[in-house]
# Entry
Amino acid sequence: MEKIKVGRVFKYFAKPMVAAIQIEEGALKVGDKIAIQGATTDLTLTVESMEIDGNPIQEANTGQSVGIKVAERVRPNDFVYKVVED
# Structure
């Protein structure tokens, strides 16, 4: 299993349980497996949907900020990695 850094969490919205993620390098698509890791965060999930300004999208590229639904709390500055299975 290989992890490729794609971005970082910059905000967490507790009620809808959504992580706001800045894509810093590469691209992220619906269906990708990601890991969100930080000092107290260790979460792996499959991206089921992404939004930009409330509009659903299928892919986000470098420089874009997206919202992704998460199963547990994440924190600003947690790193986001794309997980590549062997």
